[in-house]
Amino acid sequence: ADKLFLRVRTGKIAEDLYAVLIRDVSEQRAFEQMRRDFVTNVSHELKTPAGAISLLAETVNDAADDSDAVRYFSSRISKESARLTELVGRLIDLQKAQDEEQHPDDVTTVNVPDLVREAAGENQVQAEAKHIELYLSIDGRQIELGNTWPEGLTSEKAMVLLNRDALKTAVKNLIENAIRYSSERTRVVIGVAVVDQSVIIRVVDQGIGIPQASLGRIFERFYRVDPARSRATGGTGLGLSIVKHCVEECGGTISVWSRESEGSTFTITLPLLSQEDGASR
Ligand code: ADP
User: Fold this and answer.
1) Does an H or E element contain 134, and which?
2) Do residues 135 and 187 make contact, with C-beta atoms less than 8 angstroms apart?
3) Probe residue for ligand 1, chosen from 41, 134, 230 as the CB with the greatest number of ligand atoms within 8 Å
4) CA 158 to CA 273: how far, in whole Å?
């Protein structure tokens, strides 16, 4: 009976090992496939503006005597090279976000409302260009960007322990998208509130919204609901995948609510470190 038991056990172990091996191999394959897809996508994204630049440069050359044409084609060359620069910058951000995930250095205590105000301030020029009002909202009270926090707020001193750069990149990217996918003269509100043991950061826009069918895919690298629109407005399809990496590196989660032609709300939830009592001052 012992022998039989042993045979049964070794058989079971072999089976388990085999299962693990198969799983490892298929995970490895999936990873390899992802890597290949990524390289294909990057090459495609780089080739499009690079090809356009060389074509436009030839055209400028042919039209050298026509100063209007030279001006027009030169400005298109500038636009395409700006796109290349944007894309390369985003790829570096993505790489950084992935590296930081593996080496969670530079963790410090961060005051969330201050960070949010800073990130919003860095997007103010883009907002003004589209006459979009950027507002901060803390504990449900709306505050103009340049104004100081009013007295009596409880979330003003919400602190978290994380990589400040990563969180700022995430919030900035969300605000950038909110502006990019909104019409002129709308409003973008960036909210902060403490709920239980979490700090919630919300970026709310009144923009074009995201179709339900796409909601599950927007955090994928290079996924765009409308590639032409995203390109025309300077998008790369990498923004939200960078946001997701950054938020996860901070130990947080991200979710999205959206309805077409109503707007979108992106919510980051982070573990609260401490909340000094701002109300008692
Ligand atoms: P992109 O560089 O194209 O903006 P992202 O990864 O940042 O790439 O976003 C992926 C896609 O999700 C965008 O192309 C756009 O279709 C959609 N999207 C992201 N944010 C918003 C938003 N605030 N409102 C509407 N659509 C959005």
Assistant:
1) strand 133-138
2) yes
3) 230
4) 8
Which residue has its alpha carbon closest to ligand 1 atom 16? 225
User: How far away, in angstroms, is 237 Cα from ligand 1 center?
Assistant: 7
Rounded distance from Cα 9 to ligand 1 centre (Å) = 53
Q: What is the pLDDT along the chain (281 residues), one digit of tens a residue?
A: 555 555 555 666 677 777 777 777 777 887 778 778 888 888 888 888 888 899 999 998 898 889 998 999 999 999 889 888 988 888 888 888 877 666 666 889 999 999 999 999 999 999 999 999 999 999 889 999 888 888 878 888 889 999 999 999 999 999 999 999 999 999 999 999 999 999 999 999 999 999 999 999 999 988 999 888 777 777 888 999 999 999 998 999 999 999 999 999 999 999 998 876 544 33
The preferred substitution site among 202, 218, 257, 267 for testing ligand 1, maximizing ligand atoms within 8 Å of CB, is: 218
Enter the ipTM: 0.98
